[in-house]
Amino acid sequence: MRKPIEQQLKMGETDIGSIEFDPRSRDEIPKLLRGLQHIYCTPELNEKVFAILENIVPKETDPNNGRPGMELWKILVLGTIRLICNWDYDKLKEIVDNHKKIRQMLGHGIIDDDKEYPIQTLKDNVSLLTPEVLDRINEVVVNAGHQLVGKKKEQGLNVRCDSFVVKTNVHFPTDISLLFDAVRKVVELTARICFQENISGWRQSYHLIRNVKRARRRIQNTKRSTSKDERKRTKREKKIKKNCRNYLSEVESLLERARNSISVLRAKSIDKEKTIVEIESYITHVERQIDQTRRRVIFGETIPHSEKVFSIFEPHTEWIVKGKAGISQELGIRVCIVEDQYRFILNHRVMQNEIDVDIAVPITEDTVSKYSNIFNFSYDKGFHSPKNQIDLRKILDSVILPKKGRLSVWDRAREHSDEFLALRRQHSAVESAINALENHGLDRCSDHGIDGFKRYVSLAIIARNLQRIGDILQQRERKRRKRLAA
User: Fold this and answer.
1) What are the phi and psi torsion angles at 325 (to 5°)?
2) pLDDT tens digit string along 388-415?
3) Are 162 and 336 in contact (CB under 8 A)?
4) Domains parsed from the chain with CATH numbers
Protein backbone atom coordinates (compact mmCIF):
# COMPACT_ATOMS: atom_id res chain seq x y z
CA MET A 1 0.00 0.00 0.00
CA ARG A 2 1.53 3.30 -1.10
CA LYS A 3 0.28 6.86 -0.89
CA PRO A 4 1.57 9.87 -2.86
CA ILE A 5 2.06 11.70 0.45
CA GLU A 6 0.57 11.55 3.94
CA GLN A 7 -2.01 14.36 3.81
CA GLN A 8 -2.74 14.56 7.54
CA LEU A 9 -0.11 16.58 9.39
CA LYS A 10 1.15 15.11 12.64
CA MET A 11 1.84 17.03 15.81
CA GLY A 12 5.01 19.12 15.41
CA GLU A 13 5.20 18.52 11.66
CA THR A 14 5.89 21.47 9.34
CA ASP A 15 3.79 21.83 6.23
CA ILE A 16 6.00 21.50 3.14
CA GLY A 17 4.66 24.80 1.81
CA SER A 18 5.77 26.60 4.98
CA ILE A 19 9.42 25.54 4.83
CA GLU A 20 11.65 28.60 4.42
CA PHE A 21 14.95 28.70 2.56
CA ASP A 22 17.72 31.26 2.53
CA PRO A 23 17.46 33.00 -0.88
CA ARG A 24 21.14 34.02 -0.66
CA SER A 25 22.35 30.42 -0.46
CA ARG A 26 24.36 29.28 -3.47
CA ASP A 27 24.37 25.63 -2.47
CA GLU A 28 22.47 23.13 -4.63
CA ILE A 29 20.38 21.65 -1.79
CA PRO A 30 18.22 24.74 -1.03
CA LYS A 31 17.73 25.34 -4.76
CA LEU A 32 16.55 21.78 -5.36
CA LEU A 33 14.28 21.76 -2.31
CA ARG A 34 12.80 25.11 -3.34
CA GLY A 35 12.05 23.67 -6.79
CA LEU A 36 10.43 20.61 -5.23
CA GLN A 37 8.43 22.86 -2.92
CA HIS A 38 7.10 24.79 -5.92
CA ILE A 39 5.94 21.55 -7.57
CA TYR A 40 4.32 20.36 -4.35
CA CYS A 41 2.54 23.65 -3.55
CA THR A 42 1.15 24.29 -7.04
CA PRO A 43 -2.08 22.22 -7.21
CA GLU A 44 -1.99 21.74 -10.98
CA LEU A 45 1.62 20.53 -10.93
CA ASN A 46 1.07 18.49 -7.77
CA GLU A 47 -1.79 16.52 -9.34
CA LYS A 48 0.13 15.83 -12.55
CA VAL A 49 3.31 14.67 -10.81
CA PHE A 50 1.51 12.43 -8.31
CA ALA A 51 -0.62 10.91 -11.09
CA ILE A 52 2.58 10.03 -12.98
CA LEU A 53 4.31 8.69 -9.85
CA GLU A 54 1.46 6.27 -9.25
CA ASN A 55 2.63 4.39 -12.35
CA ILE A 56 5.65 3.04 -10.44
CA VAL A 57 3.29 1.04 -8.18
CA PRO A 58 2.69 -2.45 -9.64
CA LYS A 59 -0.83 -2.71 -11.06
CA GLU A 60 -1.58 -5.88 -9.12
CA THR A 61 -0.96 -4.06 -5.81
CA ASP A 62 -4.09 -3.24 -3.82
CA PRO A 63 -3.75 0.38 -2.61
CA ASN A 64 -6.03 -0.32 0.37
CA ASN A 65 -4.32 -3.43 1.76
CA GLY A 66 -0.90 -4.42 3.03
CA ARG A 67 1.79 -2.59 4.93
CA PRO A 68 2.29 1.06 3.99
CA GLY A 69 5.26 1.50 1.69
CA MET A 70 7.35 4.63 1.32
CA GLU A 71 5.29 7.57 0.04
CA LEU A 72 5.82 8.38 -3.64
CA TRP A 73 6.77 11.97 -2.84
CA LYS A 74 9.59 10.79 -0.58
CA ILE A 75 10.94 8.55 -3.34
CA LEU A 76 11.12 11.49 -5.76
CA VAL A 77 12.81 13.72 -3.14
CA LEU A 78 15.37 11.05 -2.25
CA GLY A 79 16.18 10.24 -5.87
CA THR A 80 16.71 13.85 -6.93
CA ILE A 81 18.66 14.92 -3.84
CA ARG A 82 21.06 12.02 -4.31
CA LEU A 83 21.80 13.00 -7.92
CA ILE A 84 22.04 16.78 -7.48
CA CYS A 85 24.63 16.29 -4.74
CA ASN A 86 26.40 13.34 -6.41
CA TRP A 87 26.09 11.15 -3.31
CA ASP A 88 26.27 7.41 -2.88
CA TYR A 89 23.62 5.68 -0.77
CA ASP A 90 25.75 5.75 2.39
CA LYS A 91 26.02 9.52 2.18
CA LEU A 92 22.32 9.80 1.31
CA LYS A 93 21.36 7.82 4.41
CA GLU A 94 23.54 9.96 6.68
CA ILE A 95 22.07 13.21 5.32
CA VAL A 96 18.39 12.22 5.28
CA ASP A 97 18.72 10.90 8.82
CA ASN A 98 20.11 14.21 10.09
CA HIS A 99 19.50 17.16 7.71
CA LYS A 100 16.69 19.30 9.13
CA LYS A 101 15.33 20.88 5.92
CA ILE A 102 15.50 17.63 3.94
CA ARG A 103 13.61 15.79 6.69
CA GLN A 104 10.97 18.53 6.65
CA MET A 105 10.65 18.09 2.88
CA LEU A 106 10.19 14.35 3.50
CA GLY A 107 7.31 15.13 5.89
CA HIS A 108 8.98 14.47 9.25
CA GLY A 109 8.12 16.35 12.39
CA ILE A 110 9.02 16.30 16.07
CA ILE A 111 7.12 13.07 16.79
CA ASP A 112 8.99 10.88 14.30
CA ASP A 113 12.19 12.92 14.26
CA ASP A 114 14.20 9.82 15.23
CA LYS A 115 13.08 7.81 12.19
CA GLU A 116 16.02 6.48 10.17
CA TYR A 117 16.23 5.09 6.66
CA PRO A 118 18.06 1.78 6.14
CA ILE A 119 20.35 1.78 3.10
CA GLN A 120 18.53 -1.14 1.48
CA THR A 121 15.21 0.66 1.88
CA LEU A 122 16.65 3.68 0.05
CA LYS A 123 18.03 1.52 -2.76
CA ASP A 124 14.85 -0.51 -3.20
CA ASN A 125 12.54 2.51 -3.31
CA VAL A 126 14.62 4.79 -5.52
CA SER A 127 15.05 1.90 -7.99
CA LEU A 128 11.25 1.84 -8.43
CA LEU A 129 11.54 5.00 -10.50
CA THR A 130 11.75 4.23 -14.21
CA PRO A 131 13.20 6.38 -17.02
CA GLU A 132 9.75 6.56 -18.64
CA VAL A 133 8.11 7.90 -15.47
CA LEU A 134 10.93 10.36 -14.86
CA ASP A 135 10.82 11.66 -18.44
CA ARG A 136 7.09 12.37 -18.10
CA ILE A 137 7.70 14.21 -14.82
CA ASN A 138 10.49 16.16 -16.50
CA GLU A 139 8.02 17.48 -19.10
CA VAL A 140 5.81 18.77 -16.26
CA VAL A 141 8.83 20.37 -14.56
CA VAL A 142 10.03 22.04 -17.77
CA ASN A 143 6.58 23.45 -18.53
CA ALA A 144 6.42 24.75 -14.93
CA GLY A 145 9.77 26.43 -15.46
CA HIS A 146 8.58 28.04 -18.68
CA GLN A 147 5.60 29.48 -16.81
CA LEU A 148 7.91 30.92 -14.16
CA VAL A 149 10.10 32.72 -16.67
CA GLY A 150 7.00 34.20 -18.28
CA LYS A 151 7.22 32.37 -21.57
CA LYS A 152 4.10 32.81 -23.70
CA LYS A 153 2.66 30.16 -25.98
CA GLU A 154 3.47 32.11 -29.11
CA GLN A 155 7.11 32.48 -28.05
CA GLY A 156 9.33 29.92 -29.71
CA LEU A 157 12.11 27.84 -28.23
CA ASN A 158 15.69 28.11 -29.46
CA VAL A 159 17.19 24.77 -28.56
CA ARG A 160 20.69 23.35 -28.79
CA CYS A 161 21.76 19.73 -28.85
CA ASP A 162 25.05 18.07 -27.94
CA SER A 163 26.38 14.83 -26.50
CA PHE A 164 28.92 13.87 -23.85
CA VAL A 165 30.16 10.68 -22.20
CA VAL A 166 28.81 9.49 -18.85
CA LYS A 167 31.40 7.10 -17.45
CA THR A 168 30.42 3.75 -15.99
CA ASN A 169 31.90 2.63 -12.69
CA VAL A 170 34.56 0.28 -14.12
CA HIS A 171 38.32 -0.15 -13.93
CA PHE A 172 40.56 0.10 -16.99
CA PRO A 173 40.02 -3.12 -18.97
CA THR A 174 42.86 -5.46 -19.89
CA ASP A 175 42.54 -9.07 -21.00
CA ILE A 176 44.12 -10.48 -17.86
CA SER A 177 42.18 -8.22 -15.45
CA LEU A 178 38.83 -9.02 -17.09
CA LEU A 179 39.72 -12.73 -16.97
CA PHE A 180 40.51 -12.43 -13.26
CA ASP A 181 37.18 -10.67 -12.58
CA ALA A 182 35.25 -13.45 -14.31
CA VAL A 183 37.08 -16.41 -12.73
CA ARG A 184 36.87 -14.79 -9.28
CA LYS A 185 33.08 -14.64 -9.55
CA VAL A 186 32.94 -18.24 -10.80
CA VAL A 187 34.93 -19.46 -7.78
CA GLU A 188 33.07 -17.31 -5.23
CA LEU A 189 29.58 -18.28 -6.42
CA THR A 190 30.42 -21.95 -6.90
CA ALA A 191 32.07 -22.19 -3.46
CA ARG A 192 29.08 -20.50 -1.83
CA ILE A 193 26.46 -22.77 -3.37
CA CYS A 194 28.55 -25.89 -2.75
CA PHE A 195 28.99 -24.95 0.89
CA GLN A 196 25.21 -24.52 1.22
CA GLU A 197 24.60 -27.95 -0.33
CA ASN A 198 27.45 -29.74 1.55
CA ILE A 199 29.42 -30.48 -1.63
CA SER A 200 33.18 -30.73 -1.09
CA GLY A 201 36.01 -29.37 -3.20
CA TRP A 202 35.88 -25.64 -2.51
CA ARG A 203 37.00 -25.32 1.10
CA GLN A 204 40.10 -23.38 0.02
CA SER A 205 38.29 -21.10 -2.43
CA TYR A 206 39.92 -17.97 -1.00
CA HIS A 207 43.36 -19.53 -1.43
CA LEU A 208 42.52 -20.55 -5.02
CA ILE A 209 41.58 -16.97 -5.90
CA ARG A 210 44.83 -15.71 -4.39
CA ASN A 211 46.82 -18.15 -6.53
CA VAL A 212 45.16 -16.80 -9.67
CA LYS A 213 45.80 -13.26 -8.49
CA ARG A 214 49.51 -14.01 -7.99
CA ALA A 215 49.73 -15.49 -11.50
CA ARG A 216 48.12 -12.33 -12.91
CA ARG A 217 50.49 -10.16 -10.90
CA ARG A 218 53.53 -11.95 -12.34
CA ILE A 219 52.40 -11.00 -15.86
CA GLN A 220 51.83 -7.38 -14.83
CA ASN A 221 55.27 -7.10 -13.23
CA THR A 222 56.95 -8.56 -16.32
CA LYS A 223 55.26 -5.99 -18.55
CA ARG A 224 56.72 -3.07 -16.60
CA SER A 225 60.09 -3.20 -18.32
CA THR A 226 60.63 -0.43 -20.91
CA SER A 227 64.14 -1.38 -22.04
CA LYS A 228 65.03 -0.55 -25.66
CA ASP A 229 67.63 -3.30 -25.85
CA GLU A 230 66.45 -5.85 -28.41
CA ARG A 231 67.89 -8.80 -26.49
CA LYS A 232 66.20 -7.77 -23.27
CA ARG A 233 62.93 -7.14 -25.10
CA THR A 234 63.00 -10.60 -26.68
CA LYS A 235 63.71 -12.17 -23.31
CA ARG A 236 60.87 -10.18 -21.73
CA GLU A 237 58.40 -11.27 -24.46
CA LYS A 238 59.27 -14.93 -23.83
CA LYS A 239 58.79 -14.47 -20.09
CA ILE A 240 55.42 -12.77 -20.63
CA LYS A 241 54.21 -15.66 -22.80
CA LYS A 242 55.44 -18.20 -20.25
CA ASN A 243 53.68 -16.42 -17.38
CA CYS A 244 50.55 -16.04 -19.51
CA ARG A 245 50.46 -19.80 -20.22
CA ASN A 246 50.78 -20.51 -16.49
CA TYR A 247 48.00 -17.99 -15.77
CA LEU A 248 45.67 -19.55 -18.34
CA SER A 249 46.48 -23.04 -17.08
CA GLU A 250 45.58 -21.99 -13.52
CA VAL A 251 42.28 -20.51 -14.72
CA GLU A 252 41.38 -23.49 -16.91
CA SER A 253 41.87 -25.93 -14.01
CA LEU A 254 39.45 -23.89 -11.87
CA LEU A 255 37.02 -23.71 -14.76
CA GLU A 256 37.01 -27.48 -15.06
CA ARG A 257 36.37 -27.87 -11.33
CA ALA A 258 33.47 -25.42 -11.55
CA ARG A 259 31.88 -27.34 -14.44
CA ASN A 260 32.16 -30.59 -12.47
CA SER A 261 30.53 -28.99 -9.43
CA ILE A 262 27.67 -27.66 -11.56
CA SER A 263 27.09 -31.17 -12.93
CA VAL A 264 26.88 -32.50 -9.36
CA LEU A 265 24.50 -29.70 -8.34
CA ARG A 266 22.20 -30.35 -11.29
CA ALA A 267 22.22 -34.10 -10.54
CA LYS A 268 20.96 -33.34 -7.02
CA SER A 269 18.03 -31.35 -8.50
CA ILE A 270 18.47 -28.52 -6.01
CA ASP A 271 16.46 -25.32 -6.11
CA LYS A 272 19.39 -23.09 -7.08
CA GLU A 273 18.90 -22.77 -10.83
CA LYS A 274 19.15 -18.97 -10.78
CA THR A 275 22.59 -19.07 -9.14
CA ILE A 276 23.76 -21.84 -11.47
CA VAL A 277 22.71 -19.79 -14.51
CA GLU A 278 24.64 -16.83 -13.09
CA ILE A 279 27.75 -19.00 -12.66
CA GLU A 280 27.41 -20.25 -16.23
CA SER A 281 27.20 -16.67 -17.50
CA TYR A 282 30.53 -15.90 -15.81
CA ILE A 283 31.98 -19.13 -17.23
CA THR A 284 31.07 -17.80 -20.70
CA HIS A 285 33.03 -14.63 -19.89
CA VAL A 286 36.00 -16.73 -18.71
CA GLU A 287 36.02 -18.79 -21.91
CA ARG A 288 35.92 -15.68 -24.09
CA GLN A 289 38.73 -13.97 -22.17
CA ILE A 290 40.90 -17.11 -22.25
CA ASP A 291 40.50 -17.26 -26.02
CA GLN A 292 41.23 -13.56 -26.54
CA THR A 293 44.20 -13.56 -24.14
CA ARG A 294 45.76 -16.57 -25.84
CA ARG A 295 45.22 -15.10 -29.31
CA ARG A 296 46.60 -11.68 -28.42
CA VAL A 297 49.49 -12.47 -26.06
CA ILE A 298 50.71 -15.86 -27.24
CA PHE A 299 49.83 -15.81 -30.96
CA GLY A 300 50.20 -12.05 -31.48
CA GLU A 301 46.78 -11.51 -33.09
CA THR A 302 44.87 -8.22 -33.07
CA ILE A 303 41.43 -8.69 -31.51
CA PRO A 304 38.65 -6.97 -33.54
CA HIS A 305 36.93 -4.17 -31.59
CA SER A 306 33.52 -5.81 -32.11
CA GLU A 307 34.62 -8.90 -30.13
CA LYS A 308 35.83 -6.97 -27.09
CA VAL A 309 33.99 -6.54 -23.80
CA PHE A 310 35.19 -3.72 -21.58
CA SER A 311 33.61 -4.80 -18.29
CA ILE A 312 32.39 -8.10 -16.89
CA PHE A 313 29.97 -6.39 -14.52
CA GLU A 314 28.84 -3.49 -16.75
CA PRO A 315 28.83 -5.12 -20.22
CA HIS A 316 27.09 -2.08 -21.76
CA THR A 317 30.30 -0.07 -21.27
CA GLU A 318 31.75 1.30 -24.51
CA TRP A 319 35.28 2.39 -25.43
CA ILE A 320 34.78 5.96 -26.68
CA VAL A 321 37.38 8.16 -28.34
CA LYS A 322 36.09 11.71 -28.92
CA GLY A 323 39.44 13.29 -29.74
CA LYS A 324 39.50 15.62 -26.72
CA ALA A 325 42.84 17.09 -25.71
CA GLY A 326 44.44 15.07 -22.91
CA ILE A 327 41.72 12.37 -22.96
CA SER A 328 42.74 9.35 -25.03
CA GLN A 329 39.58 7.37 -24.31
CA GLU A 330 36.52 7.26 -22.05
CA LEU A 331 34.72 4.19 -20.71
CA GLY A 332 30.97 4.71 -20.57
CA ILE A 333 28.02 5.59 -22.80
CA ARG A 334 27.27 8.75 -24.74
CA VAL A 335 24.29 10.82 -23.60
CA CYS A 336 22.72 13.50 -25.80
CA ILE A 337 20.84 16.42 -24.22
CA VAL A 338 18.59 19.14 -25.66
CA GLU A 339 18.58 22.50 -23.84
CA ASP A 340 16.55 25.66 -24.50
CA GLN A 341 17.41 29.32 -24.10
CA TYR A 342 15.98 29.34 -20.56
CA ARG A 343 18.56 26.67 -19.54
CA PHE A 344 16.00 23.91 -19.07
CA ILE A 345 16.90 20.46 -20.41
CA LEU A 346 13.96 19.48 -22.59
CA ASN A 347 15.00 16.01 -23.63
CA HIS A 348 17.83 13.50 -23.56
CA ARG A 349 18.81 10.18 -25.11
CA VAL A 350 21.13 7.42 -23.89
CA MET A 351 23.13 6.62 -27.02
CA GLN A 352 23.80 2.91 -26.62
CA ASN A 353 26.01 1.83 -29.55
CA GLU A 354 25.15 5.08 -31.34
CA ILE A 355 27.06 8.18 -32.40
CA ASP A 356 25.89 11.76 -32.97
CA VAL A 357 25.09 11.34 -36.64
CA ASP A 358 22.80 8.36 -35.87
CA ILE A 359 20.51 10.17 -33.45
CA ALA A 360 20.17 13.65 -34.97
CA VAL A 361 16.80 12.94 -36.59
CA PRO A 362 15.31 10.67 -33.84
CA ILE A 363 16.02 13.06 -30.96
CA THR A 364 14.74 16.03 -32.98
CA GLU A 365 11.48 14.23 -33.80
CA ASP A 366 11.04 13.16 -30.19
CA THR A 367 11.68 16.68 -28.85
CA VAL A 368 9.36 18.33 -31.38
CA SER A 369 6.60 15.86 -30.46
CA LYS A 370 6.87 16.97 -26.81
CA TYR A 371 7.31 20.71 -27.40
CA SER A 372 5.50 21.95 -30.50
CA ASN A 373 6.73 25.57 -30.35
CA ILE A 374 10.38 24.92 -31.26
CA PHE A 375 11.59 27.56 -33.71
CA ASN A 376 15.11 26.34 -34.37
CA PHE A 377 17.45 23.50 -33.46
CA SER A 378 21.24 23.87 -33.36
CA TYR A 379 23.84 21.10 -33.52
CA ASP A 380 27.59 20.81 -33.93
CA LYS A 381 29.38 19.25 -36.90
CA GLY A 382 29.32 15.77 -35.38
CA PHE A 383 25.61 15.51 -36.23
CA HIS A 384 26.14 16.34 -39.91
CA SER A 385 25.46 14.03 -42.80
CA PRO A 386 23.93 14.88 -46.19
CA LYS A 387 20.87 12.80 -45.29
CA ASN A 388 20.48 14.49 -41.89
CA GLN A 389 20.61 17.93 -43.53
CA ILE A 390 17.65 16.97 -45.74
CA ASP A 391 15.62 15.06 -43.13
CA LEU A 392 15.97 17.72 -40.43
CA ARG A 393 14.66 20.46 -42.73
CA LYS A 394 11.52 18.38 -43.20
CA ILE A 395 10.93 18.60 -39.44
CA LEU A 396 11.94 22.23 -38.81
CA ASP A 397 12.34 25.30 -41.00
CA SER A 398 15.37 26.58 -39.10
CA VAL A 399 18.13 23.99 -38.64
CA ILE A 400 21.56 25.22 -37.47
CA LEU A 401 23.73 22.30 -38.54
CA PRO A 402 27.14 23.27 -39.95
CA LYS A 403 28.58 21.08 -42.68
CA LYS A 404 31.92 19.33 -42.58
CA GLY A 405 34.55 19.96 -45.21
CA ARG A 406 34.41 22.31 -48.17
CA LEU A 407 31.25 24.40 -48.53
CA SER A 408 29.28 25.05 -51.69
CA VAL A 409 28.32 28.62 -52.59
CA TRP A 410 24.80 28.09 -51.23
CA ASP A 411 26.06 26.50 -47.99
CA ARG A 412 28.60 29.27 -47.46
CA ALA A 413 25.90 31.89 -47.85
CA ARG A 414 23.61 30.01 -45.44
CA GLU A 415 26.28 29.54 -42.77
CA HIS A 416 27.37 33.19 -42.99
CA SER A 417 23.87 34.62 -42.69
CA ASP A 418 23.14 36.78 -39.64
CA GLU A 419 20.56 34.34 -38.20
CA PHE A 420 22.83 31.30 -38.59
CA LEU A 421 25.82 33.07 -37.03
CA ALA A 422 23.80 34.42 -34.12
CA LEU A 423 22.28 31.04 -33.26
CA ARG A 424 25.60 29.27 -33.86
CA ARG A 425 27.25 31.53 -31.27
CA GLN A 426 24.51 30.64 -28.77
CA HIS A 427 25.06 26.91 -29.32
CA SER A 428 28.17 26.77 -27.14
CA ALA A 429 25.98 27.54 -24.09
CA VAL A 430 24.98 23.87 -24.08
CA GLU A 431 28.48 23.10 -22.77
CA SER A 432 27.51 24.94 -19.59
CA ALA A 433 24.57 22.56 -19.13
CA ILE A 434 26.84 19.56 -19.71
CA ASN A 435 29.34 20.87 -17.17
CA ALA A 436 26.54 21.43 -14.63
CA LEU A 437 25.27 17.88 -15.12
CA GLU A 438 28.76 16.45 -14.72
CA ASN A 439 29.24 18.42 -11.51
CA HIS A 440 25.90 17.19 -10.17
CA GLY A 441 26.06 13.44 -10.68
CA LEU A 442 26.63 12.73 -14.36
CA ASP A 443 30.40 12.49 -14.32
CA ARG A 444 30.23 8.78 -13.46
CA CYS A 445 27.23 6.49 -13.04
CA SER A 446 27.45 4.47 -9.82
CA ASP A 447 24.30 2.41 -10.48
CA HIS A 448 24.49 -1.08 -11.97
CA GLY A 449 23.14 -2.36 -15.29
CA ILE A 450 21.83 -0.53 -18.31
CA ASP A 451 18.45 0.02 -16.61
CA GLY A 452 20.20 1.59 -13.63
CA PHE A 453 22.27 3.74 -16.00
CA LYS A 454 19.17 5.08 -17.78
CA ARG A 455 17.39 5.76 -14.47
CA TYR A 456 20.50 7.55 -13.15
CA VAL A 457 20.64 9.83 -16.20
CA SER A 458 16.91 10.62 -16.07
CA LEU A 459 17.13 11.48 -12.37
CA ALA A 460 20.07 13.80 -13.04
CA ILE A 461 18.11 15.63 -15.77
CA ILE A 462 15.02 16.18 -13.64
CA ALA A 463 17.14 17.18 -10.61
CA ARG A 464 18.94 19.79 -12.71
CA ASN A 465 15.65 21.27 -13.96
CA LEU A 466 14.25 21.42 -10.42
CA GLN A 467 17.43 23.16 -9.30
CA ARG A 468 16.94 25.68 -12.11
CA ILE A 469 13.37 26.38 -10.92
CA GLY A 470 14.65 26.86 -7.38
CA ASP A 471 17.31 29.27 -8.63
CA ILE A 472 14.68 31.37 -10.44
CA LEU A 473 12.52 31.52 -7.31
CA GLN A 474 15.51 32.50 -5.16
CA GLN A 475 16.37 35.33 -7.55
CA ARG A 476 12.78 36.60 -7.29
CA GLU A 477 12.90 36.45 -3.51
CA ARG A 478 16.20 38.36 -3.40
CA LYS A 479 14.75 41.09 -5.63
CA ARG A 480 11.60 41.26 -3.47
CA ARG A 481 13.64 41.69 -0.28
CA LYS A 482 15.80 44.30 -1.96
CA ARG A 483 12.71 46.33 -2.91
CA LEU A 484 11.32 46.10 0.63
CA ALA A 485 14.64 47.24 2.09
CA ALA A 486 14.86 50.25 -0.26
Assistant:
1) -65, 130
2) 999 998 998 888 889 888 888 888 888 8
3) yes
4) 16-129 (no CATH), 154-170+316-449 (3.30.420), 175-307 (1.20.120)
